[in-house]
Specification:
Elements lengths: L2 H148 L3 H49 L10 E5 L4 H7 L4 H10 L2 E3 L6 E5 L3 H17 L4 H30 L6 H9 L4 E2 L2 E2 H19 L3 H10 L14 H11 L4 H8 L10 H15 L8 H16 L4 E7 L4 E6 L6 H18 L7 E6 L9
Parallel strand pairs: 7-8
Antiparallel strand pairs: 1-3, 2-3, 4-5, 6-7
Helix pairs in contact: 1-2, 2-8, 4-6, 5-6, 6-7, 8-9, 8-12, 9-11, 9-12, 10-11, 11-12
Length: about 525
């Protein structure tokens, strides 16, 4: 190879070597750049991950705090509720402890009273024993004296002494029996007053006297003309279908329904309200709505009876009696709702029966059903008492319940304690002020008659009827009426009121005799 050909080869090799070095340098720099970029991206990803982790940690921390606050709030609510329940329980427990203390004191007092009576009896026995010994001694002396002075035999003297001692023993026994009877009567009176007062207090309820009219509000006065109808045909159809009088007067936007039967009056009220709401008012529609309302009212009557049984916890009553009981919801006596009156009688009788340890179930059941005859007394012949007895026996009620119900007006003599309790409960419920309502004129006339009857007796200065006619106070002249005469005057006034005046419940007659001594210091 000559020099001319070798030189280009060497130059080519040098160029190749230099090119390779340049390529290696460029590749290495590119790789370093990619590594740097990769490291930057990795750092950024790590920083984003760290930031996201911090955000999530803060969010989780906030959620945890919210849940903690919510849990703490729930815990406080539950704790407050439990604390209130615990306080209520503690109050009830304290009340029960007070009741137990009162019963314990009452028991202690009774035991002391029994102990006193036992000691008195022991003392009486000792006195009798001493008297017996004294009688024996006197008998022997009397026997000797009689034998010596009168020539009597020992048997005759013995019989004479026995007769004398029997008379003395009878007198002593009569005084002792009278004292014991007076104490027993006083204790029984206090016990009965406590039982009745407790029953009234535990079963106190409000009374609302029901009237004989109902008011239906109208959307406007133009509706009155539609209710009356052409030539009054609509109002006549409604009155004939319901048996209730409709009074359309100058009262703005109102129609008055008048009738003594609350059941028919309520049907008329509901039917009229439906007709007003529907807008179609004509005789055919009126008859249709009234019949539909009557059908629905049968279900309402049954529901009223079932509600009363559920309220009093009385099971196993005949379905027909339940319906009749529900009808009492629409029956009044002197303005007092009969169903409410019957429920209160049941409450009172049951409370007093529990106090006296007698059959609470019989007393409560008889109290609820005592006026059941009033549900049909306007449809059937006979008094509500006899109708009620027939209904209870017809539907298989217990004879004890029938007897207790039959005695509540005094037509039958009570043979059980439950019968007496039902009678007393009926009188309590009917006689309390506000329970019953009378017509104003008859009420005023009764009060005037009551005062007039009291003023008619000799020695009476003036009299006042108070407590809604439940009591009359009579003030007498102390110069003409003595203390003993005042007692007989109250009895005579009470007898005259019983024989000449008609009134619900009872009337208390109080005679007041006052002596005043006046002097002046000068």
């Amino acid at each position: 190879m000559n020099e001319e050909t070798f030189l280009p080869v060497i130059v080519g090799l040098l160029v190749a070597i230099i090119g390779l070095q340049i390529y290696y340098f460029l590749v290495r720099r590119t790789a370093r750049k990619q590594v740097a970029e990769a490291e930057a991206r990795a750092a950024k990803i790590a920083e984003d991950a760290k930031r996201e982790r911090d955000d999530r940690l803060r969010e989780a921390e906030l959620q945890a705090k919210e849940k903690l606050l919510q849990a703490r709030s729930e815990f406080e609510k539950v704790s407050r509720k439990r604390r209130d329940e615990l306080e209520t329980f503690e109050r009830r427990l304290a009340q029960k402890e007070d009741n137990l203390d009162k019963r314990s004191e009452e028991q202690t007092r009774r035991e002391q009273e029994v102990g006193r009576l036992e000691r008195a009896l022991a003392t009486t026995e000792k006195d009798l024993q001493k008297r017996e010994e004294e009688v024996t001694r006197l008998l022997q002396e009397e026997q000797r004296k009689l034998e010596q002075l009168a020539g009597l035999t020992g048997q005759q003297a013995k019989e004479e002494l026995i007769r004398v001692m029997e008379n003395e023993a009878r007198n002593d026994a009569a005084h002792l029996v009278k004292r014991i009877e007076d104490e027993a009567r006083e204790q029984a009176t206090r016990h009965a007053q406590r039982i009745i007062a407790n029953a009234i207090q535990r079963n106190a309820s409000d009374f609302v006297s029901e009237t004989t009219v109902s008011v239906v509000l109208l959307p406007n006065d133009e509706m009155k003309g539609r209710i009356i109808g052409r030539e009054g045909r609509n109002i006549r159809a409604l009155e004939m279908a319901t048996g209730i009088d409709l009074i359309v007067d100058d009262t703005p936007e109102a129609v008055i329904l008048s009738g003594f039967d609350p059941f028919r009056r309520e049907i008329a009220r509901v039917a009229l309200e439906r007709l007003i709401s529907d807008g179609r008012i004509h005789p055919a529609r009126i008859e249709e709505v009234v019949e539909k309302t009557k059908t629905e009212f049968e279900n309402r009557v049954r529901q009223e009876g079932e509600a009363a049984l559920l309220e009093l916890n009385i099971p196993d009553l005949h379905p027909e009696l339940i319906k009749l009981l529900g009808r009492l919801r629409f029956r009044t006596s002197y303005g007092q709702n009969v169903l409410k009156h019957s429920k209160e009688v049941a409450y009172l009788a049951a409370t007093m029966a529990a106090e006296l340890k007698v059959d609470v179930h019989i007393a409560k059941r008889a109290g609820l059903l005592h006026d059941i005859g009033k549900a049909v007394d306007r449809e059937m012949e006979g008094s509500h008492l006899e109708l009620g007895i027939d209904l209870l026996r017809k539907y298989g009620e217990n004879e004890k319940v029938v007897h207790a119900m039959a005695c509540h007006h005094g037509d039958y003599d009570p043979e059980t304690v439950e019968a007496v309790l039902v009678t007393a409960s009926d009188a309590l419920s009917a006689a309390r002020p506000g329970a019953r309502r009378e017509i104003l004129e008859s009420y005023i006339k009764r009060l005037e008659k009551l005062e007039e009857m009291a003023n008619g007796f000799k020695g009476v200065q003036k009299s006042f009827a108070i407590q809604a006619g439940r009591e009359v106070r009579v003030i007498v002249d102390s110069k003409k009426i003595a203390d003993e005469d005042a007692i007989w005057l109250s009895k005579n006034i009470a007898k005259k009121v019983e024989s000449e005046l008609t009134y619900p419940g009872e009337i208390k007659v109080t005679v007041i005799r006052e002596t005043r001594s006046i002097e002046y210091a000068r």
